[in-house]
Amino acid sequence: MDNFWTVFFSNYRTKIKSKSFLTFTILFTLIIIGLMFSDKIMNLFQPDSKPVGVVTSDNELKEIVSQMTEDQLISGGHEHEIMYFSNKKDAEEKLADDQLAYFLTIDRNTDRTLLVTFIAETDVHDEDVASVQSIFSQIQSYLMAQDIQLSDEEFLRVLSPAEIVVEKMSSNLKDEENHLSTGFLIILFISLNYILILSYATQLATAVATEKSSRVMELIISSISPTKYLFAKLLSTLFVGLTQVAVWLLVPYLLYKLNIINIDDSLSSFINLSSLDTEMIGLGIIFFVLGFLLYGSLACLFGSLMSRSEESSQAVMPLMILLLIGFYIGIFGLYNPSSTFITVTSHIPFFTPIIMLVRVGFLNISFLEIFISLLTLSLLTVATIFVTARVFKGGVFLYGKGSFKNIKKALDVHQN
């Protein structure tokens, strides 16, 4: 057992000190910190909102515009103060001096409709034009209501939209109010599951093949059994992945606890942090562990069959394809999590670690269904580890051209 822990800690220390581990961990930590301070970062690059000019010589029209807009015009997501001009030349001078975002000239046609001319220095954004059109369409409606002597109350009744009441006989959607927040977190979870499982599975296959090709494996096996070595390698790499996850969870928690960030001022404009589902986070970690053990053990199996490190990337290609398929199905599931296709594929063990997260995040799934998926995934993982252990014992002693056909040879060597 001492040999097991020696290999375990040696592999763990080597990996957490590696440049790839430190680079990826620090880089993603900085991304998390950047997201937590996204509002402050965006404010640094947010230009000051310049006033918008309104040119009209019609005092009645000016008064109505002021009354209906409260001298504030919202366009392009920005709030602009309105500056009034009686002639166009003054507005042009202000625009030329970069003191206006743009200005509008307002005239009345013969049929009493409004003619609004949008004048900008250079580019004209469609969203700005759409905002101006919406505002002045309401003003035009108000003017026409006055012409036919509608009261303000009658005018508001004319403009009021039809009331739509939505009733659902049944819905299995979870927390529809925070759908966007949940979607963002699910994308984050399935992306990390995909990246971490794939990267560490590839590392395992490469490490085993490299040790085997350099004959280091023969020295290792002489002091520790192949099965113990396999488990030490697999579990230590799993703990390296969990260390990364722990760092990424700990950073935002500490930032919040130390009052460095305010939960209401950081991502809450885009993500409702208070709606975090602890069940989803817990299941996400469990699915990551089981998914890692499943794909990691297969990576060790394939790596033990290869005699050169160059062959390891080809060996893990089937695993890469399976993970990629699961990832894309998961992305598709974001738009239709209750579809039959997503339901069926979420119970396929090779896809469960990714796709089931989508369903757990969006849908009210029964505990029994989650338990069945976990049980199925766990049974396949245990079976895979058992088969890998048997093949690994013989595969590390096989040399020559690496091939999946060597599985039978490896089993024969193990039996002998």
UniProtKB/TrEMBL annotation:
Quick one: where is this thing mainly located? membrane
Q: Which domain of life is it from?
A: Bacteria
Recorded topology in the membrane? Multi-pass membrane protein
Which residue ranges run through the membrane?
Answer: 21-38, 184-209, 230-251, 280-303, 315-335, 341-358, 370-392
Q: Which UniProt keywords apply?
A: Cell membrane, Membrane, Transmembrane, Transmembrane helix
Annotated localization: Cell membrane
This chain belongs to which protein, by name?
Answer: ABC transporter permease
Organism annotation? Pallidibacillus thermolactis
